[in-house]
Amino acid sequence: MKRALITGATGQDGSYLAELLIGKGYEVYGLIRRSSTENFERIEQIRDRINLVQGDLLDQTSLSEVLEESRPTEVYNLAAQSFVHTSWTQPLLTGEITALGVARLLEGVRGFDKSIRFYQASSSEMFGKVRESPQHEGTGFYPRSPYGVAKVYGHWITVNYRESYAMFACSGILFNHESPRRGLEFVTRKITNAVARIKLGLAKELRLGNLDAQRDWGFAGDYVQAMWLMLQQDTPVDYVIGTGE
Questions:
Q1: Strand 27-32 to 3-7 pairing
Q2: Nearest to 106 by CA among 56, 160, 62
Q3: What counts of helices (H) and strands (E) characterise the chain?
Q4: For residues 61, 117, 24 and 28, what is the CA-based torsion angle, rounded to 10 degrees?
Q5: What is the pTM of this model?
Q6: Are 8 and 75 in contact (CB under 8 A)?
Q7: Digit-coded pLDDT (tens) for 146-188
Q8: Could you give the strand order of the β-sheet that contains 3-7, starting from the edge strand earlier in sequence?
Q9: Which helix or strand (DSSP H or E) is residue 228 part of?
Q10: Measured distance CA(100)–CA(93) in Å, rounded
Q11: Phi and psi at residue 153, in whole multiples of 5°?
């Protein structure tokens, strides 16, 4: 039986990925940070089929202990401080989690078992001030936020571990992917929530930022299949994932 460790297992992508892997017969472990309050809403439907283990991307020792406990054949690193706006108010924390957290996990995998296949959740935010449209795997990065900068570090440290230690480590550069499980701070759920509140008479308006922004949009349930497929290839390669629309 294949065993997978998912960081960020209680998030949007983590919940869809856990469902997918469980359906394929994997034994799934989900990394969670210790908290006085639990938020397992997104994985409630599979709670009895996922093994939750405590660890923190800020703590190297805890990651090594989690790898020892779960003994995965595949690791999917989806955890991050992933809200772009927050990265401006908390740039150092964003760097510690979203950038250095990747290095800590890769180092843990390298020390425990280099045969583990590793997926890193990169982001289209790395393109930032885009050099060309549409973007592809060879497009240069020009991040425009601390979040984007941190993701570029996570991306390149993954490439470095792949090339330096012959590890099966790859990144998926994913464009925006949404679902009903998205948090309210993201624009899709912000809009749908506001529409519902206006309909019910609980609000009168919806306020948004830049109405001229354009993004490629996809469904998170489809994108986690791409993550899984990347780790099933003969050789590790980085891919851009988007809909083209």
A1: parallel
A2: 160
A3: 8, 9
A4: 0
A5: 0.93
A6: no
A7: 999 999 999 999 999 999 999 999 999 999 999 999 888 888 8
A8: 50-54, 27-32, 3-7, 74-77, 117-123, 169-174, 239-241
A9: helix 220-230
A10: 10
A11: -60, -50
